[in-house]
Specification:
about 20% strand; alpha+beta; elongated; four-stranded antiparallel β-sheet; single chain
């Protein structure tokens, strides 16, 4: 069904916007809110743009971009914040990967557990 990377959500400090891919409308409202809070807090803390996307195998990637001329973007803070997100939101991120693999890549749940 999906051949390339698929964006789950994104937040931009430049545009002050949060985006959630419409393909994920079936996610529980609480999960959508957690994603929004997590992404917006990240961009408010360090700047730039944070994109959560799935690769071809269903792994969830946290991709960070910043304008080259953005002198306010905190590169060190960005790395530390991503590590913190991976540590504190590990269960959420793993659950999203499982959701994507089952419902979008049509993998069998018993093969994933």
């Amino acid at each position: 069904m999906y051949q390339e990377r698929v964006v789950l959500c994104a937040s931009s400090a430049y545009e002050k916007k949060f985006y959630l891919n419409e393909d994920f409308h079936a996610l529980p409202e609480q999960i959508k809110q957690e994603l929004k809070i997590m992404c917006v807090l990240y961009t408010e803390d360090v700047g730039g743009t944070l994109t959560l996307e799935f690769d071809e195998e269903g792994n969830l990637l946290l991709k960070v971009d910043a304008y080259e001329e953005d002198y306010y973007f905190d590169e060190i803070g960005s790395v530390l914040k991503i590590k913190e997100i991976r540590r504190t939101r590990k269960e959420l991120l793993q659950s999203l990967e499982l959701y994507y693999k089952v419902f979008f890549l049509n993998q069998d749940v018993s093969d994933l557990l």
